[in-house]
Amino acid sequence: MPGILVDQNIPRQVTVWMRQRGYEILTLTDAGIHGADDEKIAAYAVANNLVVLTQDRDFGEIYHNVYKRKLTVILVKTKDGTPKSIIETIENTHMRLDLKKLQNQLVIISKKRIRADM
Prior knowledge:
Helices cover 38% and strands 19% of the residues. It is of the alpha/beta class. The protein has one domain (9-117). A six-stranded mixed β-sheet has the order 2-1-3-4-5-6, with helices on both faces. The two termini are 16 Å apart.
């Protein structure tokens, strides 16, 4: 799997936790695009073969309208968006889906459900 570009709405604790588990993580600050709009983030991800990890539903629209089958987005849906709930969602998903093998699709994950749009 390519590296994961972590959107600014993903708490730092999640980024640290994912790095500790062997995920190749790049923050928007690392990429030099902190504060960029969603379309610029998506374009950067496509150009650099990165997966976008986000809680921003707008990336679903960007995927469908601009980058279908060119961009990989993991959209995390939780009720409260806390680091704990995001980590639990990723852990639960990882047991059912290998996040390291996703490519060119929109995957929406929650604690109880995974929906992939290819």
